[in-house]
Design a protein that fits this description.
The complex is a heterotrimer of chains A (248), B (244) and C (230). Chain A is mainly α and 248 residues long. Chain A is 73% helix and 0% strand. Chain A contains 10 helices and no strands. Chain A is globular and about 70 Å long. Chain A starts with 20 loop residues before the first helix and ends in a 15-residue tail after the last helix. Chain B has one domain: 3-Layer(aba) Sandwich (Rossmann fold). Chain B is built from 9 helices and 10 strands. In chain B, a hairpin with a 2-residue loop joins strand 4 and strand 5. In chain B, helix 3 packs across helix 4, helix 4 packs across helix 5 and helix 5 runs parallel beside helix 6. The radius of gyration of chain B is 18 Å and the shape is globular. In chain C, helix 1 runs antiparallel to helix 2 and helix 8 runs antiparallel to helix 9. Chain C starts with 6 loop residues before the first helix and ends with a helix. Chain A: This is Amino acid ABC transporter permease.
Chain lengths: 248, 244, 230
């Protein structure tokens, strides 16, 4: 093979003139992590609301939840990214549109919100699966004690449902982290993007992508360990670890 | 002539001894019933005979072939010994006809037509000809177990092993399966049957083996066993299951 | 806002969008599904095997690729495939591979990991008695796998396999990062040429939505039917 390996490339200054390529890769990793965390926070909150709505005994709420899930699940993430980034400012009133376009770090906010909504639809399915795996008796028992329906969800159903679906939440978080790389298409300088830029500037293809690969694996491991700790601290004695739902 | 011989067979799962020093034999044409409390190792014992459960020590021969010898061609041996399982284990993705034909074609290399013909004949014998095109999930438990017996018979086995063939069945279906087995015994098939159906044992068994905690406690002629079992454990067991 | 929505742009672009773009997207989806299923089933069998080396290789491969973003994997293979082709053909320099086939290889190798996990869970969900029954009839391990285990595992997993195919259909849009003209790539090219981002991206989203929704509803119906038969 006529490929020239050069592992020292990481210590050469990158195009921005101040940082080495290694430093830019870590900046990329930082943006990846930040985007993933903000996006997943949105996904958890929004996904829980939609998931609850889909199991609530109220017709219009169920329908609204279903429509939300179907829209965000059946359009490719990249297309959604374009809609948020290119189309949304166009259809907003002029002033709001201008404000959006001039926002500093617009790519970051757009990617985080877009991923947040995308994964909210999937989290909704996870939460719903968790709620449906509980026996109907739980809901009745809550209400028989005089709790309102929202209270029953808040104090009886959701605390158990979340614990049941922790493995699925973990895999959603992992998937969300990987999906931040789609932000490359709107110019987000996350990990894959920095590796790609390094490859384009130096032609050291395999060094750049190998470094990104290692960093992604490390990030995965951190998430898995962190979620395992969450799972352990949330264990309810005597309640078997039933697994409901599965995410990519 | 001894068809199946077990000599000093032992097996452990970790610290747990499932079988310890089991020896017995089954002659050609003989029907042997194996009974005992649950967890006594009787299901494990019968699965060692066609090598579905490996053993730690001792030896087992079937029709002169050593089962646990590494040179033995196990698929070949298993093709000669029929087995019927507690949960039938028909193949749910194949209809009844195909269930009966599959191993004949793939293992015995019979032509498809011959296999289907043989299957049809056996289905007739267990009284289920009308169901040839159905899938296992569409039959009752008793019907499925009769198909499973026919599937084993289609291989022209030299002996049949039954592992609690009626214990997963609703009470009203037990007899249709036992009837088939009784008929098989009367036709001279060599059979080893793990079961709690003492009526079946009384009717057709030659010998009864009683197991407890992985040991063969009693291995006696049928009349002797039901007359007055020697061991206290067998007496207790019999009094428990014969009361009702 | 909608008053400015220019439907004529979309109408004019239809032949290019569908004949060039959607054709690429659908053929890529089809080829990668078939390739991914075959390779994925092979990986699943390897992972379930008693041979430590085989299951270790398959497990390592699947876990590695499942840990990486598809975008990064697309870049990896885009640059690797020419070198692989050079190595396979014994050519003296990296071989230029047609973008379509490069994409097919990439998606086959990537999706195989997801198909592998589906098939493997299908195998694991079968009761052990099925394997025992097949062995008791004298079948070898290979015969039991081919005639008894895999047909059931694949059938039980059919809804999940099809759902994965819908995900794959959506994922193919990521070839955009290589400037390949799939359906989205075609829409993006027109959007930039005519300065009609709003129309083209909304239309692209609508088309993906309709196809994925119809397909996923069909899978749901199939799932119910399968559940009844069992």
């Amino acid at each position: 093979m006529n490929y020239h390996w050069n592992w020292w490339i990481f210590f050469e200054p990158s195009l921005d003139g101040t940082n080495t390529y290694l430093t830019t890769l870590f900046w990329g990793l930082g943006w990846t992590a930040a985007t993933a965390i903000v996006a997943f926070a949105i996904a958890l909150v929004l996904g829980s609301i939609v998931g609850v709505a889909r199991t609530a005994p109220i017709g219009w709420m169920q329908r609204a939840g279903t429509i939300f899930v179907e829209i965000f699940r059946n359009i490719p993430l990249l297309v959604q990214m374009f809609l948020w980034y290119f189309v949304l400012p166009e259809i907003l009133p002029r002033d709001a549109g201008m404000w959006l376009k001039q926002l500093p770090n617009a790519q970051f906010y757009t990617a985080a919100v877009c991923l947040g909504f995308y994964h909210a639809a999937r989290m909704a399915e996870v939460v719903r699966a968790g709620l449906l795996s509980l026996s109907r008796g739980q809901k009745m028992a809550g209400q028989a004690l005089g709790l309102t329906l929202p209270q029953t969800y808040r104090y009886v159903l959701l605390p158990v449902a979340y614990r049941i679906v922790v493995p699925a939440i973990t895999s959603e978080f992992l998937s969300c982290t990987k999906n931040t790389s789609v932000g490359i298409a709107i110019g987000l300088v996350e990990l894959t993007g920095t590796a790609r830029a390094m490859q384009e500037n130096t032609f050291q293809v395999f060094e750049a992508f190998a470094a990104a690969t290692v960093l992604y694996l490390a990030l995965n491991m951190v998430i898995v360990f962190a979620m395992r700790a969450v799972e352990k601290s949330a264990v309810i004695p005597g309640l078997g670890n039933r697994v409901a739902g599965r995410g990519r | 002539m001894s068809m199946i011989t077990l000599r000093d067979v032992s097996k452990t799962y970790g610290d747990f001894r499932v079988l310890s020093g089991c020896s017995t034999s089954v002659s050609k044409g003989e029907v042997v019933v194996v009974c005992g409390p649950s967890g006594s190792g009787k299901s494990t014992l019968i699965k060692t005979i066609n090598g579905l459960e490996p053993i730690d020590s001792g030896n087992i021969t079937v029709d002169g072939t050593a089962v646990s010898s590494p040179t033995t061609n196990l698929p070949l041996l298993r093709a000669k010994v029929g087995m019927v399982f507690q949960h039938f284990e028909l193949f749910p993705h194949l209809n009844i006809r195909e269930n009966l034909a599959l191993a004949q074609i793939k293992v015995l290399k019979r032509p498809r037509d011959t296999a289907l013909e043989k299957g049809a004949a056996l289905l007739e014998r267990v009284g289920l000809s009308a169901h040839a095109e159905k899938f296992p999930g569409q039959l009752s438990g008793g019907q499925q177990q009769r198909v499973a017996i026919a599937r084993a018979l289609a291989m022209d086995p030299i002996a049949m092993l039954f592992d609690e063939p009626t214990s997963a069945l609703d009470p009203e279906m037990i007899n249709e399966v036992l009837d088939v087995m009784v008929e098989l015994a009367r036709d001279g098939m060599t059979m080893m049957v793990v079961t709690h159906e003492m009526g079946f044992a009384r009717k057709v068994a030659n010998r009864v083996i009683f197991m407890d905690r992985g040991e063969i406690v009693e291995d006696a002629d049928k009349n002797e066993f039901f007359g007055k079992p020697r061991s206290e454990r067998a007496q207790q067991f019999l009094s428990k299951i014969l009361v009702h | 806002m909608l008053s400015g929505f220019d439907f004529q742009t979309i109408v004019n672009a239809l032949p290019y969008l569908f004949l060039t773009g959607m054709t690429f997207t659908l053929t890529l989806t089809l080829f990668a599904t078939i390739g991914g299923m075959i390779f994925g089933t092979l990986l699943a069998v390897m992972r379930s095997s008693d041979n430590r080396i085989l299951s270790g290789i398959a497990g390592g491969y699947v876990n590695l690729l499942r840990s990486l973003p598809l975008v990064l994997v697309i870049f990896w293979f885009y640059f690797l495939v020419p070198f692989l082709a050079q190595w396979l053909t014994g050519s003296s320099s990296p071989v230029r591979v047609d973008p379509f086939w490069s994409s097919v290889i990439t998606f086959t190798l990537f999706e195989a990991c997801y198909f592998c996990e589906i098939v493997r869970s299908g195998i694991q969900s079968l009761p052990r008695g099925q394997t025992l029954a097949a062995s008791a009839l004298g079948m070898t391990d290979r015969q039991a796998l081919i005639y008894v285990i895999l047909p059931q595992a694949l059938r039980n997993m059919l809804p999940l396999i099809l759902t994965q195919t819908i995900i794959l259909f959506q994922d193919t849009s990521l070839v955009y990062v290589l400037s390949i003209t799939d359906f989205l790539g075609a829409a993006a090219k027109i959007a930039q040429r005519d300065g009609r981002l709003l129309e083209m991206y909304v239309f692209a989203a609508f088309v993906y939505f309709v196809i994925s929704l119809i397909a996923s509803q069909a899978v749901k119906r199939l799932q119910k039917r399968v559940a009844i038969i069992r």
